[in-house]
Amino acid sequence: RIPRIDAFRVGGLIYLFEYATALAGEIMDINPFDQPGVEQGKRYTYGLMGREGFEKDAKEAVEFFQRALARTLMV
Q1: Sheet strands (E) in the chain
Q2: pTM of the entire structure?
């Protein structure tokens, strides 16, 4: 729980999310801040949500995350 909402705490929260995004990108070996990375993330998300037409992306996302997890656990 955040005791109060002020510029310092909101800035810290934004930093936390940016750091988590960068860390996830490093683990998955992608640049989450460039446009191709953003578009691929959208396709993976649509596929994992079950959106019609993105079934191949869902399968690819699952395989990708399994490889990333295996690579992370080997470190």
Answers
A1: none
A2: 0.56
